[in-house]
Amino acid sequence: MSSDQSSVIVWFRRDLRLADNPALAHAVATGRPIVPVYILDRDENPAPGGAAKWWLDKSLKALDISLTAAGSPLVLRSGHAELELPRLAGEVGAGLVVMNRLFEPVAWARDAEIAHELKSAGVDCKGYNGSLLCSPGSVLNGSGQPYKVFTPFSKSLLSTAEPRDLGPAPTGLSSVPGTGSEAIEDWNLQPSSPDWSTGFDWSPGEIGARRALEEFIKGGLARYSSGRDRPAEQGSSRLSPHLHWGELHPWRVVESVRAAAESGKAPKSEAEAFVREIVWREFSAHLLHHFPRLPERAFRPEYDAFEWRDDPAGFEAWTRGRTGYPIVDAGMRQLWTTGWMHNRVRMIVASFLVKDLLIDWRRGQAWFWDTLVDADLGNNSQNWQWIAGSGADASPFFRVFNPTTQGEKFDPKGDYVRRWVPELAALPAKWIHTPHDAPSDVLSAAGVTPRTYPKPIVDHKAARERALAALKQIARAD
Ligand code: FAD
């Protein structure tokens, strides 16, 4: 413990937890009073979408409860961090600010400025990695360049990275009494008139995150590799929003599933199949760090010449789940109702927008950004570019998902469609993915009419030909 007894500000961002939190652990280790703060920057770019704000509201409330129980309640401030942090440091007599780094390029550059501002005000500033298995820049190929292909990236990361910074939630924090805080209710993060969040069935916060991890280990992990492709089942972990908001350290997740496999609760192959997805998250974050324009520009520049269609009616039908393709519509309605969509269905709906409708992937990315509780700049842009064929290690553009056969393969009984598109619920499994081809007596027995459920807004076969012709145009222009 040093003789310096000035307080330490712990600046929380997307590390909304007490356990396994390197910045907080460092602050606690100093033995000095702790001021935990969250700063809402209303000019943040990109601003969080509506669903993300819903999550933030609840996760901050949960964090405050845990911090209060540990001894030092969460302080809420709004404004620009480069002004608010030095101001707060002055108010509470802080000599040090600690934070877990954000690796997105804009945040990275801003944090460097903030550290500079603080240092010029005589306040030290330290950053840690609390969100990734490895910091970007530490996984590079033999020529010292970032990997652009997933498999070698994954091999390199998994052979070198080691679990770090795991430790229990601290207790007995000493606070700085009288530190003023804003009221979260005044931040209006929760939607009202209308409140579209009534179907959001989530438990934001560290306790909810731990519970979701435990449930997954007890349930889906043992047959993850097949279960994760079945949207009607709870075969995946649903940890994405918890990971995005830093309610769990990714090493905690990896260590827990590996320990479960070691103790025979799940086959090792299933645990490693799951770890592979955590490494995809890592790949996205590293790519975004090294290629800052990923959310705006095609990673493969020839794709920037693509001639997208302007189709407001098609886009609206897609957002509302009224395309006439049941699996697409089920996914888009699951997204709107719950703030989340199953991964297999994300791929199907994204392919439909980009290839069947030939609508720019950035429009889909923006819709997801606003509606997903797990909206994440790296994962969202990397995955949209993967589908659009323009990304690093992407699925080729000519691989056009057929929404009907995808539905039949991954939702064979139609349970997922029945749940999210109730107007088709009475259709037999044989026709659930092809109501447009069903005989009229089957449709009328199930109460399906063009008024209750639309005919397909495009013919998939013709749309596929159109997409491949558009691809040839850019190949010629290249
Ligand atoms: P699980 O299968 O249980 O996987 C565990 C974790 O691994 C996930 O929580 C996630 O952190 C990570 N992961 C899984 N799949 C991927 C993937 N394909 N790419 C990167 N990381 C992955 N994920 C987001 O977290 N935020 C997004 O904004 C996002 N946008 C997407 C957009 C499109 C078009 C597509 C096709 C996928 C997107 N994904 C995004 C990836 C993936 O769909 C979700 O991470 C996954 O569905 C979350 O469910 P889960 O937690 O049950 O996943």
Write a brief caption for the model.
The chain has helices at residues 22-29, 50-70, 81-92, 105-120, 150-160, 206-218, 224-227, 240-244, 250-262, 268-290, 312-320, 326-338, 343-356, 361-371, 377-388, 403-410, 415-420, 440-446, 460-477; strands spanning 7-12, 34-40, 75-78, 94-100, 124-128. It has 3 domains: 7-129, 3-Layer(aba) Sandwich (Rossmann fold); 132-165 and 206-290, Serine Threonine Protein Phosphatase 5, Tetratricopeptide repeat, CATH 1.25.40; 301-477, DNA Cyclobutane Dipyrimidine Photolyase, subunit A, domain 3 (Orthogonal Bundle). It is globular and about 80 Å long.
Question: What secondary-structure arrangement, pairings included, does this model have?
Answer:
Elements: E1 7-12, H1 22-29, E2 34-40, H2 50-70, E3 75-78, H3 81-92, E4 94-100, H4 105-120, E5 124-128, H5 150-160, H6 206-218, H7 224-227, H8 240-244, H9 250-262, H10 268-290, H11 312-320, H12 326-338, H13 343-356, H14 361-371, H15 377-388, H16 403-410, H17 415-420, H18 440-446, H19 460-477
Parallel strand pairs: 1-2, 1-4, 2-3, 4-5
Helix pairs in contact: 3-4, 5-10, 9-10, 10-15, 12-13, 13-15, 14-15
Overview features:
478 residues, alpha/beta, Rossmann fold, Serine Threonine Protein Phosphatase 5, Tetratricopeptide repeat, DNA Cyclobutane Dipyrimidine Photolyase, subunit A, domain 3, 3 domains, five-stranded parallel beta sheet, 5 strands, binds flavin-adenine dinucleotide
